[in-house]
Every structure is written in structure tokens, then in C-alpha cells.
């Protein structure tokens, strides 16, 4: 008998169907519509209580018997159609990869420390060196006639350091899905960096432009703790909340690695579809498990779902980033849809142990590529207000530019471009 936290997909949320599930699983179910600042899902879910995310038809239960769940799926009179164990998610950036390597390979500690020291202490390029705006230039932002005005873009990450001067004057809505941690503080820095890439404007120190959709409405969902870790239930809790709020774009710079030939999660396939049905586009980082050119790895979860847009990363030389995952599970899903700048990307960052003297920081990862696409989606949605989320997705792919010498499996339809 295996127990733990499980994510359960339902076909039917009618009262009778839920009562049957409550009886079979011996659990009380609370709908997400009754959640609030004082009544949060992570405070409810325990041995006796589960939470149903009503916009997604997804139930989270704790310490259930897996045999019991298997029986429920086989029972055709039951509303339960699928379940899976909760997973852990991490920021999709280079430094997070280093952190995981430290835990797995004690013998590599010295080399890892050297690499980490290099990445952290790597000086910001001087103003004369393309001003670190290469990513915005590469996607044609200087030609943009739109700024994302009126479009809600939600960043699901480690939160936002709202005291940062680039965000302190904005009215920003947010919610934390991590027990005991606030959404409006970001000791980690990853969420602030990604928020800057998608929605920032200009640097307060030198006036250089670094963000894609400067006039969009920034929304924050803290789904990763200050240590950079989060779980399936925190992610789906936030997605359900964002759909309730009718946010148009969800940006997920987080990933959980998968193996070659792994099937995509039915859970995230369904969540992505239900989001699109609610006119909401989910954009996710493809993950950073590759060590190119020898060993590309498959697209991570949840980006490997066909209903979620997967974003790979390129560098300023228009080459695939060495860490960027690839669409090498084509028979089971997990393709790259588009690529975006993801190497040496400067954005807003809180002052912390890694960044003591600056309000900006250079990071690399598919984490940095995904919010470029999220920002672009906001420009498109402002430009084409009558287009659905699915049509915006198609437009992003159709306007992307192939890069000579790079395979489709690595960059999908190509490098995203501003629509002119």
C-alpha cells in the first residue's frame, strides 16, 4: 500500500458525484470557490480534507491508499478518471541545475563551486556591449506598436520583490500558495527576474529597456517557496485562481524533469485544455536538463503537454542554449513550440546574497525564455482583442522565424517575433 498526496482528475463535479467520491475516499471535499486569504488550500488539505479546484475539475487529497484510487478509476460509475502522485517543481534556470547537481554528486562539488562562482560573479556587460538588450532586439521589440495595455499577465514563480523601484509604484495583485510566505517578497529572486522580462520597462540605473510588455497588468502567484521548490498542488491551485480571475496569460518558468519516452501528464494536458477553453494561455519553460551538443534531454513537465506552450532558449549568437531541452519524445508529445532569448538575460532582481550591489542581474535558462513569449502574447492580445487564447498561440507560432542550422526539435517554429 502506497500513500501520499495525490492529484485526481474528475469528469463530473455534480453534487452526487462528489458525495460518492467523499464516501469512497473517506474525505471531506471543499471547493476552491470557498477559498480566501483566511481560508487557503494548503491549510485545508490533510488526512481528512481535500480541495477541489472547480475551474479545472481537479481534486487534491492527502495520504490516500493508491489501491483505493486504482479501484475508483476502474469503476465506470465513478467520476474519477485519472490520478497521479504529487511532483516537485523547480525554477528552470542554470543556478537551480547547479543546486541539484550539488545534492546528487558530492564528488563534483569543487567543479560545481567554480562554475557557480563564475555565473554569480560574471560582470554585467558594459553599456557599449549591446546594452544587454539583445533579446528584445532579436524579437523585434523596437518595431512594436503595442505595449500589452489592459492585458493581465500572471507570473507563477517565487513571488515578486515589490519594494524594487521598477515595481514599487505599480498596483499589483498577487496571492501566495506557499504556507507562511508572502507573494510580495522574493528572497529567491527568480520570480522578480521573470516578472521583469515579461512586464518590465526600463532600468532605473541607466534607462535601458529590458522588459517586453511594459503596460500590461502584472499579476503574481507564488507557487515556489523561497528555496525554489514547489509542488503540483501549489501550481494547480494558482492556475485555478488565475482562471477564476480571468487572467489571459500564465507564465510558468518552472519544470519537473521527465525521462525519454515518458508520456505527458494527463493532468496537465487537461488543465491546459481547460485553461484554453477559459480563454487563458499557459506558457512554460522547456527545462534545462540538456548538456549539448552531445546529450539533449526531453521537454520537462508541464511544458511537455500539447495544451501548454513549450519554450526553448537561444543565445545572442542565434544558437541553441547548451542547457535547453529538446522535442525528442515526438510520439508521446513534448515538442518545442517556439524559442526565445534565454542566455545572459538582464532583468530586475532583489538585493540579496547573490546580488548585493545591483538592482539587476544576469541569468540564463529556459526560465528567461518563457516570459519573453508571455510578454509577446500580451502585445498580440492588445493588438487583436477579438482573438481567443488558442488563436494567439497560433499567431505566435506562425510569426516565429526559423533559424538556419537549428533543428525543429530544438526551436519548434522558431524565434518569436513582434507582429508588424
UniProtKB/TrEMBL annotation:
Belongs to the peptidase S8 family. The active site is at 157 (charge relay system), 190 (charge relay system), 367 (charge relay system). This is Peptidase S8/S53 domain-containing protein. Residues 148-401 form the Peptidase S8/S53 domain. One of its GO terms (biological process) is proteolysis. It comes from Chryseobacterium culicis. The keyword tRNA processing does not apply. It comes from the Bacteria. Keywords: Hydrolase, Protease, Serine protease. One of its GO terms (molecular function) is serine-type endopeptidase activity.
